[in-house]
Amino acid sequence: MGTTTAPQATEQVLSTLNRDGSRRWLHPRLSRGRFHRRRLAVAWGLIALFTAIPYLRMNGKPWILLDVPARRFTLFGATFLPTDGFLLMLLMVGILLTVFLLTAMFGRVWCGWACPQTVYMEFVYRPIERLTTGRSRFTRRLGLDRVGEGPRRALRYALYLLLSVYLAHTFLAYFVGVDRLRHWIGGSPFQHPAAFLVMAVTTLLMLLDFGYFREQVCLVACPYGRFQSVLLDRRSKIVGYDPGRGEPRAKPKERAAARPAGDCIDCGACVHTCPTGIDIREGLQMECVHCTQCIDACDAIMDRVGKPRGLIRYTSKAELAGEPRRMLRPRVVIYPAIIAIVFGLLAASLVEKEDADVTVLRGIGSPYAELPDGRISNQLRIKIVNRADAARSFTVSVPDEPALGIVAPENPLPLAAGESQTAPVFVQAPRSVFVDGRHDIVVRITDGAAFDERVPYRLLGPFGPAPAGDEPSEHRDREE
Question: What residues contact residue 147 under an 8 Å CB cut-off, 6+ apart?
Fold first, then answer.
């Protein structure tokens, strides 16, 4: 039997795949320029902020603490509980619309300048790779280029592992808090095996992400690039190549006075520096993260050949087609208006939000019960959510009607910080207070301090007066 070979693709499917389907490993050349310096400052500022946020506090609370087991989410001094579904929805819608607005105006500025995947990959892990592969001047200055590939690779992955451990611990601080994380680090893994396993798995995922999958996360796993067709329009800012100025391409040795040629000298610098391996000269592509490395590379070449900068630049498809620049358009007016409404509703809801939530529900089963002494009992289910950061006790009463009695398993009801509990409460009323089978009351729930809420509620009872002979026994004794 003869051997068969895998069919070759007729065109390139992904910039990180060879035509035979094998992985194409990218080792982009660093292009230092004005945009790289700006991105470097932004990246290290974001890394410092990412590290500091778990330690920063506002209103006595962490800036961000996503305590999933306790179901408490603290964001910039405000605590959200599972009962705050509407507030969380407003927050997520506002963030999503803000992303839409930034994309419509500035393209994929998030991907190229602020996404953690890009920031750590391009400004932490890739510099380590360049340092340990012998290709940089700094490496040659240290003499690492004379060290074998095996020791350099071992050093590279050891540094990757240390960085991944740091990232994993910082990431976990957002979910467990720095105090609990410090306790875990100071103790033996056998004292908290589950926490140690979470940290180890997170470290492994970080190592696989930045050490193996790398740019594949942006190209294959992240859906953001695939949303470009609906988030961008012709006037959105993109990193684009100007074909009207650059074409036809010609290398310096091929240029002749009689043959017209554009400014592009077909040097390939923009391709060699691209961290996702694309050719920006082929137009806007899903793989482009707008990192501006091609701009810095092309500007350096233009300076060298005496041509003006900007062959590759921040522009828009409309400008490349010769249309005038126009920032004002429907989507950049509609998005801010909706964002203002959403965040205005969120701010108003947070201002009006009290430090406890109370819901009074009717009991399950029959609407009321007649007691042996003739009184009518209604079962209420009172759900209380303690939103405060300290334990409190809540008392249920009907203060405006002393003739009514309250029977509850616990009254006051103690609740820990963030705890939610539904307690049964029985309200007992004389039959005589019911008119047409109902009687309106006001239920008061208070913690004896700042919180005091009154909730209207309708008791249900029988129609008409009590049948003869069914009066309460004490009333019959009094008549005899």
Answer: 134
